[in-house]
Amino acid sequence: MGVKKTGLGAGLVNCPGGKVEPGETPAEAVARELEEETSMTVAVADLTPAADVVFRFPDVPEWDDLRLHFFTATTFAGEPRETDEIAVDWIPEAGIPYDLMWDDTRLWLPDVLAGEFVVMDVDYAGRDKVAEYTRVPPRAS
Hints:
By secondary structure, the protein is α+β, with helices and mostly antiparallel strands. It has one domain: Nucleoside Triphosphate Pyrophosphohydrolase. 16% of the residues lie in helices and 28% in strands. It is built from 2 helices and 7 strands; from the N terminus they run E-E-H-E-E-E-H-E-E. Strands 4-3-6-7 form a 4-stranded mixed beta sheet. A 3-stranded antiparallel beta sheet has the order 2-1-5, with no helix packed on it. Strand 1 and strand 2 form a beta hairpin. The longest helix has 13 residues. It holds the Pfam family NUDIX.
């Protein structure tokens, strides 16, 4: 995790991530973005789907709805290195700074870290407060 330096969420603590490029799966995008933003590498086969979250910002018309795919991994190579995008470092689970993250994070990340796959829809009020959310049962594979 680290402090995002640019783009949506700049100034907040966040996980590395980005957009899925044409022809990529979400897992391939995660592996690519992790390397680009942290210099760490992970094999796509070592990624475990962890959450599928849709974010809506009805009060911010210039922001599109977002669907984010989150993954976990326990096998990787390298150590986190700060880039132009994010100032990353290891953060112990007990020290996750939820008060410095997107408001929704506290609603799903603890369950992901406990091993649950989370599917959620989140509507924001303005740019920084959750107005409402719905946890939905995971889709059958």
